[in-house]
C-alpha cells in the first residue's frame, strides 16, 4: 500500500512538473500551481466593492458571488495553473508638443487577450494529448477569477502596495492568465512575504491620489479607469488635470517601482511598440472618424475605450499640455456628433483660452443643444472670465 501511494505521489509530481514545462514551452514566462479554493483575498474584494471603489464597473458587482470559487468558472476544477507573460519593451521616445502617452501594455499591434488565448489553447491541447481525462479552461481577465490571489497562492509573487502582483525577477510588467484543470496536482508554495518594505513610491507618485492606502485602490480616481473603463461619460473635471498627458491607461505606479528597474524585456513580437501608438499624436487622433478609428485600433487594446472615449481623452490631454497649436483641431471637434468629445474640447479650449477663444465658445454656446456640453461651455467661459480679471 505504501509503495502504491509513493508511486502515485511521484506520478502526480512528474505530471505537475510536465504541465509547467509545457507552459514554458508555449511561451509563458512564469508558471505555478495552486489548489482550487476560495482565495484568502475574496473578503477583501467584497469589502472593496462595498466601499464603491469599483466605480461604474458594475459587472464586478453582478458577478461577485462567482469570484468566491473557481468552480463557478469550471465545475470540475481541482487545480489552477497561473501563468505570466512579460510585456516590457524598450522605451519609446518621450512625449513632446501635442503628443499623448499610452500605457505600456497597449503599445503593440495586437490585443493581449488574443495573444494569450492562442497560447492557452496550445497549452490546453498539449495537456489533453498527454492526459486525455484532464479537463481544462483558459482564463484571461474576463472570467470571474481572482487572478492575483491565485498567482500569489501559486508562488508567483506578492500583491504590492500598488495592488499589482510583483515578482522579484519579473517586476510587474506582465499579464496574468490562468488555466483551470480538473486534476489534482502538486501545488507550489504560496508567496506569503511582501517585499515592498517601507517603500511608498507608488502611493506618493499617483497623479490623482487614487490609493486609499497601500493595497487599496479607489478606481474612481485611477487614470487607467478614467481613460478606459469610464468610456461613455465625462471624466470629473477635478480629476482632468491629473491625467496630465495620459490618453489611454497609466503606468506611473509601475514606472516608479524599484522592482521594475531591471526586469527583462519581452520576447513577444506582438507587444513591441508601434510608432503611431507610443506616443499618440493627440491632434491627429481628433481628426479620426469612426471608420478611421476602427481601422487603426480595432485589433488593439485601445479599441476598448471606443472612439468617443479615446478622443475625449485626447482633448483633455491637449488642454493639459497647453500647446496653442491644438486650438484649430479643438475648435473643429466642437462640431463632432459625439457630445462626450464636444464637452472635452470645450474644457480644453477653456484651459488654452484667450479673448478670441472666449468669443468662439460663446458663439458655440448659443447654438449648442446638448445640456452636458452647454454646461462645459458655460463653465469654460466663466473660468476664462475669472482668469482675465
TrEMBL record:
Its EC number is 1.1.-.-. Keywords: 4Fe-4S, Cytoplasm, Iron, Iron-sulfur, Metal-binding, Oxidoreductase, Queuosine biosynthesis, tRNA processing. Residues 187-216 form the 4Fe-4S ferredoxin-type domain. This is Epoxyqueuosine reductase. GO terms for biological process: tRNA queuosine(34) biosynthetic process. Gene3D superfamilies: 3.30.70.20, Leucine-rich Repeat Variant (1.25.10.10). Transmembrane segments: none annotated. InterPro entries: 4Fe4S_Fe-S-bd, 4Fe4S_Fe_S_CS, ARM-like, ARM-type_fold, HEAT_type_2, PBS_lyase_HEAT, QueG, QueG_DUF1730. One of its GO terms (molecular function) is metal ion binding. NCBIfam families: tRNA epoxyqueuosine(34) reductase QueG. It is an enzyme of class 1 (oxidoreductase). It comes from the Bacteria.
Amino acid at each position: 500500500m505504501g509503495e502504491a501511494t509513493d508511486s502515485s505521489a511521484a506520478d502526480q509530481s512528474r505530471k505537475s512538473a510536465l504541465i509547467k514545462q509545457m507552459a514554458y514551452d508555449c511561451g509563458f514566462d512564469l508558471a505555478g500551481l495552486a489548489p482550487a479554493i476560495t482565495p484568502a483575498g475574496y473578503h477583501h474584494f467584497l469589502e472593496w466593492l462595498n466601499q464603491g471603489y469599483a466605480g461604474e464597473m458594475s459587472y464586478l458587482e453582478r458577478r461577485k458571488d462567482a469570484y468566491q470559487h473557481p468552480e463557478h468558472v469550471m465545475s470540475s476544477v481541482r487545480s489552477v495553473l497561473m501563468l505570466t507573460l512579460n510585456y516590457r519593451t524598450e522605451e519609446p521616445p518621450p512625449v513632446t508638443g501635442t503628443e499623448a502617452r499610452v500605457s505600456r501594455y497597449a503599445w503593440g499591434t495586437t490585443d493581449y487577450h488574443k495573444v494569450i488565448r492562442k497560447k492557452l489553447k496550445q497549452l490546453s491541447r498539449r495537456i489533453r494529448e498527454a492526459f486525455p481525462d484532464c479537463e481544462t479552461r483558459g482564463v484571461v481577465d474576463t472570467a470571474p477569477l481572482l487572478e492575483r490571489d491565485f498567482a500569489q497562492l501559486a508562488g508567483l509573487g506578492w500583491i504590492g502596495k500598488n495592488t499589482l502582483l510583483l515578482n522579484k525577477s519579473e517586476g510587474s510588467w506582465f499579464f496574468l492568465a490562468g488555466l483551470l484543470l480538473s486534476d489534482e496536482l502538486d501545488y507550489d508554495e504560496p508567496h506569503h512575504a511582501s517585499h515592498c518594505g517601507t517603500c511608498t513610491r507608488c502611493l506618493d507618485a499617483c497623479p490623482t491620489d487614487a490609493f486609499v492606502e497601500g493595497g487599496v485602490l479607489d478606481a474612481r480616481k485611477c487614470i487607467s479607469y478614467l481613460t478606459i473603463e469610464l468610456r461613455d461619460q465625462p471624466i470629473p473635471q477635478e480629476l482632468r488635470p491629473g491625467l496630465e498627458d495620459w490618453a489611454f491607461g497609466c503606468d506611473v505606479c509601475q514606472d516608479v517601482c524599484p522592482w521594475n528597474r531591471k526586469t527583462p524585456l519581452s520576447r513577444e513580437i506582438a507587444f513591441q511598440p508601434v510608432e503611431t501608438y507610443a506616443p499618440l499624436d493627440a491632434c491627429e487622433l481628433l481628426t479620426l472618424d469612426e471608420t478611421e478609428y476602427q481601422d487603426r485600433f480595432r485589433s488593439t487594446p485601445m479599441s476598448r475605450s471606443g472612439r468617443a472615449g479615446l478622443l475625449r481623452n485626447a482633448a483633455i490631454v491637449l488642454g493639459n499640455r497647453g500647446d496653442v497649436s491644438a486650438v484649430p483641431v479643438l475648435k473643429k471637434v466642437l462640431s463632432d456628433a459625439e457630445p462626450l468629445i464636444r464637452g472635452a474640447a470645450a474644457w480644453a479650449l477653456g484651459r488654452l483660452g484667450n479673448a478670441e477663444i472666449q468669443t468662439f465658445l460663446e458663439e458655440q454656446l448659443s447654438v449648442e443643444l446638448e445640456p452636458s456640453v452647454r454646461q462645459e461651455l458655460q463653465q469654460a467661459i466663466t473660468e476664462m472670465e475669472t482668469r482675465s480679471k
